[in-house]
Amino acid sequence: MKKNISVVPMLVKKNLRLAGRMAYAFYKIGRARLFPKHDFGFNHMKNLGLVYFKPTGACNLRCVMCGQYGDKGVMNDCAAEENKKTLPLETWKKFVDEIAPHKPVIYVWGGEPFLYKDLFPLCKYMVEKGLFVSLNTNGTMMEKHAEQIVRDKWSGIFVSLDAFRDVNDAMRGKGAYDKVIAGFRALNREKEKQKAKYPILGIVTVVTNKNYMDLVNLAEASREYSLDLHIFNLGTYTNDSIVAAQKRFMKEKLDTDIDCLEAYNTGYNSGIDGQKLHDILMGIHKVNYGHPMITVPVLNPDKTHTYYAELETPVRNRCIVPWCQVNVNYNGDVHFCADYPDYILGNITQQSFREIYNGERANQFRKTLNECDGGLFPGCLRCYQNMLFGKKIKGY
Ligand SMILES: C[S@@+](CC[C@H](N)C(=O)[O-])C[C@H]1O[C@@H](n2cnc3c(N)ncnc32)[C@H](O)[C@@H]1O
Ligand code: SF4
What we know:
- The chain is an alpha/beta fold.
- Helix content is 37%, strand content 12%.
- It has helices spanning 8-14, 16-34, 79-83, 89-99, 119-128, 142-151, 165-172, 176-193, 215-221, 240-254, 274-286, 304-309, 353-357, 360-370, and strands at 2-3, 50-53, 105-108, 133-137, 156-160, 200-206, 229-233, 293-296, 325-328, 333-335, 346-347, 394-395.
- The strands form two sheets. Strands 8-7-6-5-4-3-2-9-10-11 form a ten-stranded mixed sheet. Strands 1-12 form a two-stranded antiparallel ribbon.
- The longest helix is centred in the N-terminal third of the chain and has 19 residues, at 16-34.
- The mean pLDDT is 92.
- It binds S-adenosylmethionine and iron/sulfur cluster.
- S-adenosylmethionine binds at residues 59, 63, 65-68, 109-110, 112, 136-138, 160, 204, 206, 233, 235-236, 264, 384.
């Protein structure tokens, strides 16, 4: 078993700037861990390591497991109304001006970020401010924009690809796989033509009961795409009783009604043979596919079965997200939890970000979390964001 940090030497060899930026984010997040009790009266901006930008809630795909547009997606009935709330470029730029001095890693996601009409000027602005600008995309629109992506020096693109062609398309929609591959090829051509190292290219794979037996096929196919990274995300899952416990807790402690956790009660964890998946991932991590492989959450491989079959058993403790990360939504609302935008800290159209991040609602959330058993709310047992980074945890 390796520690999660063991991927760093390979990253350094592959791409020094990426490794440096990741190390800096780790450092800030580690620093946030050292001061777990800070809530009121502390300038939390100092430890801001990772900022999620969600410039649009719109999407062109309907991936089955997605918390927004999947079987139980929260956006399914309200996307048209919600999309009218999209912020103008100028508001985003003001927000960028405020966070840029703290040099957080930027992670643009959505919805599908390529559907935000001002995505290119926004990313260009952030790159010019010296930020490491990465995007998470379904990759279906990369091909036609490849020239500009490289020209504008985006730092990284993490493309969602869940399996080899047929299995991937059964989860993400017909034709999705081939569009992504056409996008990778176009980007690699452009990088060569423009003699550019950026963007670094990665795949993010969500593990479900539909694709776990096909992960090796995808890993094999990925040899051809000149990647810098492949992330296996074990997926976010919950069940009825966890949702009920979280609803009660959030109402009682933070006077908040929650809707978003239920969207991950999909059942796509059920039937996964934990031992089989353990062996598959162990096998993948042993092979050199030409780029580093990371499995997140960083968890002890022996807990793989527990992860899927016993959703109520914690596999990690203490969430540190509110001490080092933040998500800003398409309407300007600020949240700590990117996937569960129920508790709103404030809105960047009404207050400065600093006031919001150090404000009463943010600190009340931090204080409540600090007082929880194990430093976790009852609904957060399989939250991806909490488990992105781990200290001294052995993983795959
Ligand atoms: C919601 S998507 C938004 C960005 C873009 N539309 C995409 O698909 O990459 C963000 C990431 O969440 C992943 N995702 C979707 N459903 C998930 C789930 N149930 N658990 C964990 N990750 C999930 C997606 O595959 C993607 O990598
Ligand atoms: S492309 Fe992304 S946001 Fe759209 S449905 Fe799929 S996972 Fe969800």
